[in-house]
């Protein structure tokens, strides 16, 4: 018998002063059995960074044809494809051909090794951006994971803070490919 996803609920309030975007999103997050709390929280962070009424959680780990998050226009064309972790070259090149923009958020201590092997292979994909979240930051985010969460994300002058009311984590990002 297959294991079922664990459901997490998050009330995510976003104050993105860089984009003049202020909204509260009620997210229902299905955590795949193979997904960690750390990865789940990086997914929430990616949602906060790119928040839009049209941005939705996709099947990600459950379906190789879908990203973790995506945003489509009214015609169904994919505007934004977001991958979490360390996707392989073929997946990124395929996403690059299907979407206007592809974002990858890597987050493990081994991300540098993954990126070193991948960088030259996806150089021709001009619409792919790769951002790394250091292991210390992702571990701090993991500690914030609860089945029911109230989170606030503030973005100002390129700086990002995520808080649950008790803990605040500043999110430094390292852009590997813009």
TrEMBL record:
<dbReference type="InterPro" id="IPR011335">
    <property type="entry name" value="Restrct_endonuc-II-like"/>
</dbReference>
<dbReference type="Pfam" id="PF07152">
    <property type="entry name" value="YaeQ"/>
</dbReference>
<protein>
    <recommendedName>
        <fullName>YaeQ family protein</fullName>
    </recommendedName>
</protein>
<dbReference type="InterPro" id="IPR038590">
    <property type="entry name" value="YaeQ_sf"/>
</dbReference>
<dbReference type="InterPro" id="IPR009822">
    <property type="entry name" value="YaeQ"/>
</dbReference>
């Amino acid at each position: 018998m297959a294991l079922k996803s664990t459901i997490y609920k998050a009330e995510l309030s976003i104050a993105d002063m860089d984009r003049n975007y202020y909204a509260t999103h009620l997210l229902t997050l299905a955590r795949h059995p193979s997904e960690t709390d750390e990865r789940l929280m990086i997914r929430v962070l990616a949602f906060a960074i790119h928040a839009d009424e049209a941005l939705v959680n996709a099947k990600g780990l459950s379906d190789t044809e879908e990203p973790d998050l995506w945003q489509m226009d009214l015609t169904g064309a994919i505007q934004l494809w977001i991958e979490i972790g360390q996707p392989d070259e073929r997946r990124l090149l395929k996403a690059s051909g299907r979407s206007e923009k592809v974002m990858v958020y890597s987050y493990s201590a081994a991300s540098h090794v993954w990126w070193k092997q991948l960088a030259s292979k996806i150089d021709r994909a001009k619409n792919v951006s790769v951002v790394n979240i250091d292991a210390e930051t992702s571990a701090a985010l993991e500690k914030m994971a609860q089945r029911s969460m109230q989170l606030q994300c503030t973005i100002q002058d390129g700086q990002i803070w995520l808080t649950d009311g008790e803990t605040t984590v500043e999110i430094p990002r390292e852009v590997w490919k813009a």
